[in-house]
Specification:
about 350 residues, alpha/beta, TIM Barrel, 9-stranded mixed beta sheet, about 15% strand, binds iron/sulfur cluster
């Protein structure tokens, strides 16, 4: 994953809901283990000995997210999502670089898995490097829909004739500037079959400044239905700044949902998951999916076994009203929908 296009001038002139522009916030993200240790008041030697060399997928975490971590806690659930740990070097059976076999079916940044829907790889960059990411080895350099100014991807979607929903994914699609997103939305809206644009993004959680006036205006103007699916795994990720951004987003969005990944040592207990659902509701977001881990190389230490995952779901059902219980699912390559556990 690269950090391309961090600074684009048109967004720097946008009026923001929170001071700094999102590009500047991203530019100032933490990339150095020693600096992270200092911010968290953890002895450098302790954090270094827990960390691994991760040059292909380096540490990247926004300062606002670091500020939500507990100081002096090596097991903080937010820290564990972003810290490259020595466990990533374990070569586990069944884990591979392309667990969902997307790399063979991606074409000009378009991936078709399910009926009537297509996924468009809008950006290869993210506001954070989540250690469990299933696309951490995705070949973004040759599979970006933006590479040819969206043209080839749009042509493909138009020719398909049956795409009613386009899912903007990545990387993170909100890494694209508002001006380029606007061009993409305009092009998508010329495709007769497209009724809905869905955005999968972790930006509002990581860098809430990304929900700026330019983005809101763009979403409001769209003639398509707008579904936004954010990605949050733990209630501690949802501070007041994130809550304000999510509440603002729920204006132009027709639906605002969350998807989480079930991660060992981070959110694999009933009370943590229940609290996440309650906090999401407070922010105006409905829990949608709780995904089992996709078995990508270097992530086996995050895996929760199926029996435990099912037990957690049962526990959640007894704690929460049905609308706050996410669907526990696994993605199986080649299946025509997600597989419920
Ligand atoms: S934001 Fe999403 S795509 Fe980016 S590293 Fe995290 S999980 Fe992967």
């Amino acid at each position: 994953m690269s950090e391309a296009n961090l600074l684009t001038d048109e967004s720097l002139t946008d009026k923001r809901i929170c001071g700094l522009s999102w590009q500047r916030t991203l530019q100032q993200a933490v990339r150095d283990i020693d600096e992270l240790a200092g911010l968290l008041e953890i002895p450098v030697a302790r954090l270094r000995s827990a960390a691994c060399d991760s040059s292909g997928f380096p540490l990247l975490v926004p300062r606002g997210y670091v500020a939500r971590m507990n100081k002096r806690d090596l097991h903080d659930p937010l820290l564990l999502q972003v810290l490259p740990r020595t466990a990533e070097n374990v070569d586990a059976t069944g884990f591979s670089d392309d667990p969902l076999r997307e790399q063979d079916i991606a074409d000009d940044g378009v991936i078709r898995k399910y009926h009537g829907r297509a996924l468009l790889i809008a950006s290869g960059a993210c506001p954070v490097h989540c250690r469990y990411c299933f696309r951490r080895a995705f070949p973004y350099a040759r599979q970006l829909a933006s590479r040819h100014d969206w043209e080839r991807a749009i042509g493909k979607l138009r020719r398909a004739g049956d795409i009613s929903e386009v899912i903007l994914s990545g990387g993170d699609p909100l890494n694209v500037s508002n001006r380029r997103l606007e061009a993409l939305f305009d092009a998508l809206e010329t495709i007769e079959s497209v009724r809905c644009i869905r955005i999968h993004t972790r930006f509002p959680i990581m860098i809430p400044e990304r929900v700026d006036n330019g983005l809101l205006a763009l979403l409001e103007r769209s003639s398509a239905k707008i579904v936004i699916v954010v990605h949050c795994n733990h209630a501690n990720e949802l501070d007041s700044g994130v809550e304000a951004a999510l509440r603002t987003l729920s204006g132009p969005a027709d639906l605002l949902l969350n998807q989480s990944v079930l991660l060992s040592g981070i959110n694999d207990d009933v009370e943590t998951l229940a609290e996440l659902s309650r906090r999401l509701l407070h922010c105006g977001v409905l829990p949608y999916y709780l995904h089992t881990l996709d078995p990508v190389t270097g992530t086996a230490h995050f895996q929760v076994d199926d029996a435990r995952a099912r037990a957690l779901l049962c526990g959640l059902r007894s704690e929460l009203p049905g609308y706050l219980v996410p669907k526990l699912v696994r993605e199986v390559p080649g299946e025509l929908s997600k597989t419920p556990l």
